[in-house]
Amino acid sequence: MKVFTTPTSLDRVLEPSPDMKESVMAVEKIVGYNFKNKKLLEEALTHPSFTGSASYQRLEVLGDSALNHAVTNYFFCMADYQKFTQGQITKLRSANAGNLNLARVAVRHGLYRYLRRNAPDLDDQVREFTEAVINGEEMVESEEAKVLADIVESVAAAIYIELNFDLDKLWMKFKPLLDPIFTLENLHDHPKTELNEFCQKNGKDYEIKLRPRHETRNVSIADVYVDGEFIASGSSNKKKGARVYAAKEAVNKLCQSVVVDDGSFQEEVA
Amino acid sequence: MKVFTTPTSLDRVLEPSPDMKESVMAVEKIVGYNFKNKKLLEEALTHPSFTGSASYQRLEVLGDSALNHAVTNYFFCMADYQKFTQGQITKLRSANAGNLNLARVAVRHGLYRYLRRNAPDLDDQVREFTEAVINGEEMVESEEAKVLADIVESVAAAIYIELNFDLDKLWMKFKPLLDPIFTLENLHDHPKTELNEFCQKNGKDYEIKLRPRHETRNVSIADVYVDGEFIASGSSNKKKGARVYAAKEAVNKLCQSVVVDDGSFQEEVA
């Protein structure tokens, strides 16, 4: 018996507002689902900066929860249950249903252009984020990543409501948009986690130091030191980004080097 | 079509270990569900401190996600969808599926005694927590609350797996254990949130100050000042608890008082 079913108020044939007709049709095509209540998808495509119409904020709560749970189910059902530790499942869930990945999904499917909004600053931020994704750069959590993820979650929630809260059906419809799913085999850790794990394994201390802003002008530069020795640096217009890029560069260098007897690092000679 | 189904490795008739037979039977009775694979419930009832057998840690991840999502669905389906704001849904979810409430559920149904464990310190903490719940005291997040919530989540996950990952069926089986469900009508905010909201509404500043520990011996005492005026204090063996109790006491007093013209508080005369 179904206890979670589409509320009567939403289970209706409704057309979108004239200004959203094209966007709704375009997104229906992207997700491969034809809505009965097109107002629901319109709501999923409305940013809070657009006044006078319900925004995606409510749907986002439902979509976030549905995608998180679907991904959790996926790893419990698809894989040999005993294979994963608690930490690994948590990591896989965050890699697949976390904001950063969902933001990448939004970029891959070009969803932002269909978002009804009134937020010129956000447009600039999303443009930068999109370029970074296309260039395969390491991403960091940010306001624009959150908005991009929110769109994916809200659209998922709208489909989930139309599918009568059937999570299996939502997953069948939505997984192709998320593909490729990160698995333990292709999951790379966050650079700072990797750096931390590398140093712990080799009994080393590391430090990521930000250079004083007045020395670096309008950019943040971070340097990685391992046991006091400079290893690599990274730069970004955000402090967090600089730290992440520095860590990534450091991990790359450390993986190509070997620890020699005196404890210092040396480049490996092929 | 079901895509999330019980993994073959778990879909078996299995008896519990001899030492867990009674506990498994007792918990089956509490939750009103007779397990096919009793090893699954045994795993849900095994704390990580008990070595030599799989602990509930993996199940807890699944149960946490399932209960969170079920509660989210519940508020989307049962209520008039437009009635809730994003903040209210988030608050209701945390009030019902958050660790503190699930810990209360564990206490109400006496689940801790069936947990296979090797953790004498935890036993003491749980005893204190249980007394506090029985006395209707305001609770704060703690290690023991987390363990108690973990048991509820793990047992929920074990049932969910046996029910072939059917969230509707899990909710029908599990909701009676969670009842009464907090709704907007009976939901009291956390005392610190209430104090904050009260002060914002009345244009007042508040401060919660901890007294120096050397003055108060082995107990933490916190005092609440509103616009510099002492309102109430609270004590606990934990700093966090002292702050919460002080805030609660302050809210009680403030609600019984009226703001008089000069901006100070005065006790209301009936």
Automatic annotation (TrEMBL), chains A, B:
GO terms under biological process: siRNA processing
Highest taxon in the source lineage: Eukaryota
A GO cellular component annotation in the UniProt record: cytoplasm
SUPFAM superfamilies: dsRNA-binding domain-like, RNase III domain-like
One MF term in the entry's GO annotations: RNA binding
Ranges where the DRBM domain occurs: 190-256
Residues annotated as domain RNase III: 24-164
Stated name of the protein: Ribonuclease 3-like protein 2
